[in-house]
Amino acid sequence: MFKKILIANRGEIACRVIKTARKMGIATVAVYSDADRDAVHVEMADEAVHIGSSPAAQSYLQPEKIIAACKETGVKAVHPGYGFLSERASFCEALEKEGIVFIGPKPKAIRAMGDKIESKKFASRAKVSTVPGWLGVIENADHAERIAGEIGYPVMIKASAGGGGKGMRIAWSKTEVRDGFERARSEAKSSFGDDRVFIEKFVVDPRHIEIQVLADAHGNALYLGERECSIQRRNQKVVEEAPSPFLDAKTRKAMGEQAVALAKAVDYQSAGTVEFIVDRDKNFYFLEMNTRLQVEHPVTELVTGIDLVEQMIRIAAGEKLGIRQSDVKLNGWAVESRLYAEDPYRNFLPSIGRLTRYRPPQEGTFGDIVIRNDTGVTEGSEISMFYDPMVAKLCTWAPTRLEAIDAMSVALDSFVVDGIEHNIPFLAALMQHPRWREGRLSTGFIAEEYPDGFAPVEPDSGEKAVFAAIATAIELLRRDRLDRLSGRLAPHSGHLKRDWVVKIGTDYLAAGIVDGMVSIPMEIDLSIDGGKPLTVASDWRPGDAIWHGTVGGSRIAAQVRPVPNGLRIAWKGMSVTAQAMLPRTAELERLMPERLPPDRSRMLLCPMPGLVVSIAVAEGQEVKAGETLAVVEAMKMENVLRAERDLIVAKLNAKPGDSLAVDAVIMEFA
């Protein structure tokens, strides 16, 4: 077994590998760029080596710097994590020349499966069912249009060397093929240095289901069940689960055996994932094989009890698999939510900045529930523009699917992140979505259910009552605390007031105390708008970021943040401003004028921090609704900004190459 390994990666996956290595008694070496000098993975490792400036192309994507770090620290094995150099055969070969073990598959398997075009040809020869498509070289947009017409719309345009949803477009018409072809090629070249793309038939209502495989150097191979990854946005996975709510035992076995056959055919040696597209009739088609550890591997670990990183290390060290196919049992259900630094209210555009507050839910086993959070950041960490915007992977396990989903809902409500925009409100709302809870999924779920983007979820009357009850309970404690301060001329509130009014948004709800007294822990009965009394119980203390308790017998975890004259309360993807006050104060508050935001309807604002790739218009030009105005790149994704209506460009305030902050004015309209 190795005495020391180097992790050629960063962030949460580097931390994840370090945890297993530490458990196995293996020392670790981290590498880091300028931007990651104070990163968590650097602090966790036994040793750390600086390898370059912040851009990945000048640090984490430099094989010679990784090898130099190995020599400097005496390391004989490298774990690549995922992304960066994890699927680059030349890196594996360079390590082998230096006598350093690559903790992953051999170069032959990486080459055969790592290229999407070649892997489909290989799978076809191995009699694995594949989606109809064109795997040859596509010369230009005209050629792409002809191929798409022959295959039949819709089609998928994908980067050959791609991953993570980059260089990928769905086209439903000739026009979309031409535009998608150019965008996919541009993104592919920018992200992977390889502008080759291929085209295949797009399966309508597809489900993305993948099989986890393990194979050693002694001819043993097995599969560890499946993961469903159908909740995707822009072809980027957002929520995953294991097992799939769609598969039956027969289909699972067929997919697993086919995945193992493919792994054996390519002489695979490590952990790997065979991805399939599954249609509504449970027909499955080979999509690709990822010759590395998957981002979503924790859900497989939670339902099988098998540490995949440990297996990778043992296989790389030459050991035989210590488990057989008959040993693999799927126990319970696991769900993973990817927490991204992105603004769900701005069409999920990237966000960067410092984590001024980062308080994930407590990890561990709580009765029948397991909570796990794989992360590479801590409070004070910087979310950089140079790398992927994923902040953490929150996972829950429970005996059943709905129990795991409900546990995830509470865990998300308990996850406090400030300083950046993030997708927790969307994830929390998703956990309540009927279609998700019923398991009626497809890769088009988000686009279908949120066609106009994600908007703030409006609470119904029952949910407003919960918000009002929480706000009233918090206000009672606040006033009681003021009364106990020494040196006051007179009590702030005097005896306990029974009648209150809570403003939720623009609504005013009456809140009456029926029974109970102010204390910590608190238990009082409240009637909201004359309704049946609700028992409110909590041990919340002023200053706590999470209000844990029950309202009317329902378990609640809500985030509370002070705002002028009230609170911002977030729960289940909903967020409201609540102000609890005495009736006379409410009368006067109703008379206060409303301050309106400035009119920016005649401006094109930069929706996220990014780099201006191109400006498609000139001053004085008339443009029609839907036409491209500018292209802005953020975190290696090109975002096309289009005109929402017919207009005339009055002034350009930015040019290609400019680096802009969020809401910077790109252009103004007449």
Automatic annotation (TrEMBL):
Domain ATP-grasp: 120-317
Pathway of action: Metabolic intermediate metabolism; propanoyl-CoA degradation; succinyl-CoA from propanoyl-CoA: step 1/3
Reaction catalysed by this enzyme: propanoyl-CoA + hydrogencarbonate + ATP = (S)-methylmalonyl-CoA + ADP + phosphate + H(+)
EC number assigned by the record: 6.4.1.3
One example of a Gene Ontology biological process annotation: lipid catabolic process
Entry-linked SMART domains: Biotin_carb_C (SM00878)
Residue ranges of every copy of the Lipoyl-binding domain listed in the record: 591-670
Record's keyword annotation contains Zinc-finger: no
Cofactor(s) required for function per UniProt: biotin
Transmembrane intervals: none
Key words, A-Z: ATP-binding, Biotin, Ligase, Lipid degradation, Lipid metabolism, Magnesium, Manganese, Metal-binding, Nucleotide-binding
SUPFAM superfamilies reported in the protein's UniProt record: Glutathione synthetase ATP-binding domain-like, PreATP-grasp domain, Rudiment single hybrid motif, Single hybrid motif
MF terms (GO), sorted A to Z: ATP binding; metal ion binding; propionyl-CoA carboxylase activity
A Pfam match: PCC_BT
Domain Biotin carboxylation, first and last residues per copy: 1-451
PANTHER family, sorted: CARBOXYLASE:PYRUVATE/ACETYL-COA/PROPIONYL-COA CARBOXYLASE, METHYLCROTONOYL-COA CARBOXYLASE SUBUNIT ALPHA, MITOCHONDRIAL-RELATED
Protein name, entry field: propionyl-CoA carboxylase
Organism: Mesorhizobium tamadayense
